[in-house]
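User: Dihydrodipicolinate synthase, Streptomyces viridochromogenes:
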Amino acid sequence: MTDHRLWRGVLVATALPLNDDLSVNHDRYAEHCAWLVENGCDGVVPNGSLGEYQVLTPQERARVVETAVAAIGGQRVMPGVAAYGSAESRRWAEQAGEAGCRAVMLLPPNAYRADERSVVAHYAEVAKAGLPVVAYNNPIDTKVDLVPELLARLHGEGHIQGVKEFSGDVRRAYRIAELAPELDLLIGADDVLLELAVAGAKGWVAGYPNALPQASVELYHAAVDGDLDTARTLYRQLHPLLRWDSRVEFVQAIKLSMDIVGRHGGPCRPPRVPLLPEQEAAVRAATEKAVAAGLA
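Assistant: Predicted structure for Dihydrodipicolinate synthase:
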């Protein structure tokens, strides 16, 4: 990784391996981070939604970051620092810096539907930790929408350097580029990868590379390099799995795919529950098809 903006490339929002008793298996997590890099990914994003950060203790959450840094180096680790309060998010950003990380990813306030002034104050507070901040726009789950005009303001005031765009509205890519051309757009949902890559995305905060890193990395680079024949073929093959990244059961689905390809996905902590039989069958069939096609 040569670009100082570590979020440029494929950063995997890592699933967190849990033991049968639902304790965190840090050794397996370290091995998973190293395996992802060995298979072409540029880095990891621990403590995102896929990493079940909401149900970790503060001690677990801090150790997850430290484990990733020890495994692959802080220059490849961009932790999620979301929290209900701005002071807490800033503390997590400071912890990331102390652990050796070079950037953090931050949701807007998500305990309530914050107004624009509150959103700006939130990002301003966390930026005081001194690390570059990549905003995470997920209006589906947070009920706070970082629309292009607001992103341009946050960037213009120096609070953010990039945005993980999860709204699913690919039209926003062009508006963001018009309003804030120096703000890095990152693909935030696996199932709009090709559309956002063509629109000029600089990176991908990705889910399904947890199970299929090499094929996913090949897809990303073909898309951003303009090799659309290769990209379209891979996208069609992978899309039955990629679309699970935008569904409520994305953590369970990706962990199941990991189990099927011989990684350790394992269980999830409550309140997440196992997939329904028909959901499990769909994920299993799509994963096995991808394996049979040589994509694992």
